């Protein structure tokens, strides 16, 4: 048996005096082994049976601890091949001061970008879309919903809405919405972005290949043309374990305060 497995059991023995339920003690021992780097991303966990025999606890208890760690995204289970320490995401640091597209952001980092289509078409607008895009109920909205993938890792689900007069053929945008808008002189020059915390629901979590309920970021971007017209209303879910949004802040003296 590996050193890591021995360490897990040693830690478990030490904590067995703590009086906490056994599955919690086991969960903590495994979590500590991962955090201390004794078992690293991609390493296999000993089998449920081995853990149960060696630690002298029931397989039900082992399963409960392991399931909890799978739910928390610390372990992953692959059918037929066992349980592994989850791969660690390299976090993407994203500036909040530049109005760039997903394609540009990832290309700058040398990452291979692709998207999976979730929806594209012309629809009757929702009340939100009518209000933000200034559409009447007789006009149509173009919706472009994509799973955004970089280096084969799904990072975000983006649902963009634009006036159909700006994007009459949503299926024809190719791989970049902003590149398509640029071609018709409609690339936004300014945007307001609102970021809030969200726990991922079943469907979104499945698409992003993370356990349901883990932390995500809900981002709403409303972007404008130089004329002040709203061009894009996009609601996205980003993986919380993959993104750091970074804003630069400056001290404003009394002389600058009145200007903004
Ligand atoms: C970014 C924008 C999104 C925009 C997309 C265009 C955020 C949160 N969202 O991901 O609003 O629609 O870029 O990307 O930054 P594309 O040109 O690669 O399709």
Automatic annotation (TrEMBL):
Top-level taxon of origin: Bacteria
Name of the protein described by the UniProt record: Transcriptional regulator
Lineage: Bacteria, Pseudomonadati, Pseudomonadota, Alphaproteobacteria, Hyphomicrobiales
One of the GO biological process terms: negative regulation of DNA-templated transcription
GO MF term (any one): DNA binding
Record-linked InterPro entries: Bact_HTH_transcr_reg, Chorismate_lyase_/UTRA_dom_sf, Tscrpt_reg_HTH_GntR, UTRA, WH-like_DNA-bd_sf, WH_DNA-bd_sf
Biological source species: Mesorhizobium australicum (strain HAMBI 3006 / LMG 24608 / WSM2073)
Gene3D superfamilies named in the record: Chorismate lyase-like, Winged helix-like DNA-binding domain superfamily/Winged helix DNA-binding domain
Domain HTH gntR-type: 20-88
Keywords in alphabetical order: DNA-binding, Transcription, Transcription regulation
One Pfam family matching this protein: GntR
């Amino acid at each position: 048996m590996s050193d890591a497995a021995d360490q897990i059991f040693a830690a478990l023995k030490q904590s067995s005096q703590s009086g906490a339920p056994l599955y919690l003690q086991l969960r903590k021992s495994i979590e500590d082994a991962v955090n201390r780097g004794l078992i690293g991303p991609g390493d296999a966990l000993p089998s449920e049976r081995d853990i149960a025999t060696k630690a002298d606890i029931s397989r039900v208890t082992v399963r409960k601890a392991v399931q909890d760690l799978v739910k928390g995204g610390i372990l992953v289970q692959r059918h037929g091949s066992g349980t592994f320490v989850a791969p660690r995401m390299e976090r993407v640091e994203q500036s909040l001061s530049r109005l760039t597209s997903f394609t540009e952001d990832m290309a700058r980092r040398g990452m291979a970008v692709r998207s999976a289509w979730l929806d594209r078409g012309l629809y009757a607008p929702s009340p939100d879309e009518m209000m933000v895009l200034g559409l009447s109920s007789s006009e149509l909205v173009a919706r472009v919903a994509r799973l955004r993938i970089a280096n084969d890792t799904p990072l975000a689900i983006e649902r963009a809405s634009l006036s159909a007069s700006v994007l009459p053929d949503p299926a024809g945008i190719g791989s970049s919405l902003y590149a398509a808008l640029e071609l018709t002189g409609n690339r936004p020059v300014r945007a307001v972005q609102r970021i809030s915390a969200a726990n991922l629901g079943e469907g979104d979590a499945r698409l992003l290949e993370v356990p349901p309920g883990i932390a995500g970021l809900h981002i709403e971007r409303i972007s404008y043309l130089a004329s002040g017209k709203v061009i894009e209303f996009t609601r996205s879910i980003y993986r919380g374990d993959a993104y750091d949004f970074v804003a630069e802040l400056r001290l404003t003296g009394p002389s600058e305060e009145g200007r903004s």
